[in-house]
C-alpha cells in the first residue's frame, strides 16, 4: 500500500513539473511601478514622512542582504528594492510598502551579484614613427639659422624695428575748445567745460552745451603746414587722385601724401603745398591697411588711406567710428551737465 502511494505521488509530481520543464525558465514578474521622489513633509503610504523615513533606516540593511538585492531606496510610495529575485522581497515592513524593481544594470545576475566587466580591448597600436624625420634636424632655409635649445629657425637679418611715432609735446595746462575752431590755452577748464584727455598727454576742455571735436594737435606739421590742414587737403584731393589711371591707393604719412601707381607721370609733385611721394605699383590690391592709437605705425594718427579695393575701407570706418565716439562723449557731457543742474 505504501508503495502504491509513493508511486502515485511521484506520478503527480512528474505531471505537475513537466509543463514547467517544457517551457524553460520563467521570466521574473515585477509589479508595474513608476518611481516618484519622496517630498519631505508628505506622508508615505499613509505614514507620516518622518516615521516612514525611520522605518526605512531600520530595515535598509536587512533588505540589502536579501538574495539578489542590489540597492535599496526611499521613494514616495515606499521602499524600492532593486533586485534580481523579486519573490524574496516582503510586501511591506512595519506597514511601509516594499516594491521590487528589476535591476537597472543589465549585467546583474539572478544570484544578486554583478557580472564582471568584459575584458578591455587590446590597446590601439601606435603608428611606426621610425621613418619620421625630426624637424629640428632639418636644415634651415637660406638667410636663417637654428636657435640652440629652441629647435626653430630665425632670420639672420631680423626686420628693422618699427619707427617710433613722433608727436608734438603737449603744452602746459589745457586747450579750451570753443565754436569756430577757437583754441585757447589755460591752466584749467573754465566753468561749463569738461576736461577730456587726448592722445600723447594733450588735455582739452569741451563745452558741455556746444562740444567741439578734438583736433589732432599732437601730430607734427608736414612741410610747414599744420597737420589738421594737411588732413583737409588730403580729403579734398584723395578721390580725385583715385580716379587717375594706374592709381592703386592714396595714403597720408608724416612726410606727405603717398600714392601707389603704375603711371607716375600723371601725378603732380605737390598739392596745395603738401608733397606727394609716388611709389611703384605692387600689382595687387592692398588689404588690412590700418593703424591704431596704441601701435606706432604709419600713417600718422588722424591720417587716412584710400584703396581701389572696395573691401578696404578701414580708414573711412575709423573716421565714422571716431565721429560716433565723439557724439557719445558729447552726449555724456550733456547728461552730466543736466544731472548737475537738477542736483
Structure keywords:
elongated, alpha+beta, single chain, 24% helix, five-stranded mixed sheet, 15 strands, four-stranded mixed sheet, 4 helices, 343 residues
Terminal residue distance? 121 Å
Mean pLDDT: 76
Helicity, as a percent range: 10-25%
* Overall strand count: 15
In brief:
This protein has helices spanning 2-23, 49-64, 227-242, 314-342; strands at 69-75, 78-83, 92-93, 96-101, 144-146, 153-155, 174-178, 182-186, 193-197, 203-207, 247-253, 256-261, 270-271, 274-280, 305-307. It has 343 residues and is an alpha+beta fold.
Structure, described:
Among the domains are: 30-113, no CATH class; 227-312, no CATH class. Residues 18-25 and 287-315 have low confidence and may be disordered. It has helices at 2-23, 49-64, 227-242, 314-342; strands spanning 69-75, 78-83, 92-93, 96-101, 144-146, 153-155, 174-178, 182-186, 193-197, 203-207, 247-253, 256-261, 270-271, 274-280, 305-307. The chain has 343 residues and is α+β, with helices and mostly antiparallel strands.
List the SSEs and their pairings:
Layout: H1 2-23, H2 49-64, E1 69-75, E2 78-83, E3 92-93, E4 96-101, E5 144-146, E6 153-155, E7 174-178, E8 182-186, E9 193-197, E10 203-207, H3 227-242, E11 247-253, E12 256-261, E13 270-271, E14 274-280, E15 305-307, H4 314-342
Parallel strand pairs: 2-4, 7-10, 12-14
Antiparallel strand pairs: 1-2, 3-4, 5-6, 7-8, 9-10, 11-12, 11-15, 13-14
